[in-house]
Write a structure and sequence with these properties.
This protein is of the alpha/beta class and 144 residues long. The protein contains seven helices and five strands. The chain is globular and about 40 Å long. The model has no long low-confidence stretch (mean pLDDT 95).
């Protein structure tokens, strides 16, 4: 089974004090334990780093710690999916044609990465947004 992890789930899994840490960490741990193939997007790696180093977590996550979390907790068990320039163009064009504005573009990029990887499940805490962006994937999108 191929499992895609949205940044919202990765952040929650990484921060013990996060409100969704338990289910996010369990989903990640279960994925590894059951030998499932985990995926995250290349831009999700940057999003994770940005959120970890700027959100008001207590204690704060410093840049070197954020990299350590990525390198030790996520990258060994996940394949990073990168989009081509043409795939980025297609996603931005699709957002524009649907009138989707703002940060929805990042969710649309996650959806495209999950499609590209052929994932069977997409974990996110933005279930409704992902389902609206990709109705054909609705059954695959769930919260951990």
């Amino acid at each position: 089974m191929k499992v895609y992890f949205d940044t919202s789930v990765l952040v929650a899994a990484a921060v013990k004090g996060h409100a969704h840490h338990g289910p996010a960490f369990s989903a990640l741990e279960e994925s590894v334990a059951k030998g499932r193939h985990g995926f995250m997007s290349a831009h999700g790696m940057a999003e994770l780093y940005a959120v970890l180093t700027r959100a008001p977590f207590t204690p704060a996550v410093y840049p070197s710690e954020a990299w350590q979390i990525l390198e030790q907790s996520f990258l060994p068990s996940m394949e990073v999916v990168a989009l081509t320039a043409e795939e980025y163009r297609r996603v931005v064009r699709e957002c524009a044609s649907h009138g989707w504005a703002g940060g929805k573009i990042y969710d649309a990029l996650h959806v495209q990465c999950a499609r590209k990887a052929g994932c069977d499940r997409i974990y996110t805490f933005n279930v409704r947004d992902f389902q609206r962006l990709a109705p054909e994937l609705q059954a695959k999108v769930c919260a951990p």
